[in-house]
Structure formats: structure tokens, C-alpha cells
Amino acid sequence: MGAVAPKLLANNPFAWCVVTPTSAEDIATLAAMKTSDGKPLPECPAAFLDESNRFEAHFDDATGWAYTGLNRWATRGAINAGLSVFIYVDWLVGGDQPIPPRYNECELLKP
């Protein structure tokens, strides 16, 4: 922790990268830039720029940007959250389950 990883790793929740420049001047500038620990900036993998890996979006003069892919992803997350609540409440009321102690009722926990 505390350093920049040169590639995407499973244990790095805040991964970032720099799109590889195309002009000679920008390539030289990127090569001269270093991270705080003296390493080169991590460059994005080529697949990062593939259209198939991007959220679907389009621009409309009347409404501006519409992020349909992002909206679909957020809706799926909301559905997952709702189902999680439903499953928990169904478990809670559907059987002879004792109600678990609240976050501030630690003294009620049994070993």
C-alpha cells in the first residue's frame, strides 16, 4: 500500500492509469513524469480503449449526455440491493429466527 502498482491488481480498489499518448511530445512528457516513489506512471492496457469495454453513452443537443449503460448498471445494483433486503426480511419473519441484536446491543450477543 502507499505505492503505485504498474498494472491492475485484484487488491487495488482505486486503480488508475494514463491513456498512452500518440504524439512524440506527449510521449516524451509522459516518460518524464514519475510517481511519488519514482516509478513511471502506469499506462492503460490497450483493451481499456475498446468500445466494447465502455459504458454505452450518447449526446443529444436537447438533453445533453445520456449514459444508458451506466443507468442500466445502476439499476441492476439497485435491484440487487432490494433483493438483499427482501431475502433478509423474509428470513427474519419467515421462520423461528431470533431477531439479531442491533449494532449498539453488543451485550446481547452470545458466544
Description:
The protein has 111 residues and is mostly helical. The protein is 32% helix and 5% strand. It has 2 domains: 1-54, no CATH class; 55-111. A hairpin with a 3-residue loop joins strand 1 (58-60) and strand 2 (64-66). The chain has a two-stranded antiparallel ribbon with strand order 1-2.
Low-confidence stretches: none
Structural class: mainly alpha
Q: What's the pLDDT, averaged over the residues? A: 85
Strand content: 5-15%
Number of helices: 2
In N-to-C order, the SSE pattern is HEEH
- How far the N terminus sits from the C terminus, by CA atoms, comes to 35 Å
Number of strands: 2
- Structural Rg: 24 Å
Spatial ordering of strands, largest sheet = 1-2
Task: Kindly state the percentage of residues in helix.
Answer: 25-40%
Count of folded domains: 2
Q: What is the 3D shape?
A: flat
Major β-sheet annotation: 2 strands, antiparallel
